[in-house]
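2024-03-11 09:14:02 DEBUG pipeline.ingest accepted 1 chain
2024-03-11 09:14:02 DEBUG pipeline.ingest length=154
2024-03-11 09:14:03 DEBUG pipeline.predict start
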Amino acid sequence: MADLRRRAILLGVLLVGGSVLLAAQSNERIDQLLTQDPAQLGHTAYLVLSAAGTIDEDVSPAEAVAAAKDAGLLPAGARVDTPTRFGDFAYLLTGSFGVPGGVMYRLVPGPRYAAREVVFQGWSRTRRSAGEIISGDVVARVLSVYLNEEGGER
């Protein structure tokens, strides 16, 4: 019961306090992501890229992964059902929204320094390593914090 209540509250925050882009997305896709532990890379890519306006909200998670690969935001071997690592999510987030990042991120862009940037900026309320596998709940929370603090699409 507490888990269902937590999901309902988080979904409410995403829909009401998030951005217009998140509010327009399919509730079904958000619900799918929130129940995933670990989050699947396809759903993570879909949520981040659609929030950034890079893809339409009616594309599939597989198409979202393909778009992220084409943009150089995911490695060539990434698959839809791969568990999401914090670094991959952070790199999707920073790359999709054009976050400039710190010195090391500019010199060596990639998941490791993107993860450090997301933690440094406070978008992740918890210190996380780039290799940590995260849940859909974490993906939604960090993206929501980013959108609320940075105003969404740049």
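2024-03-11 09:14:41 DEBUG pipeline.report Confidence is low (pLDDT under 50) at residues 19-24.
2024-03-11 09:14:41 DEBUG pipeline.predict end
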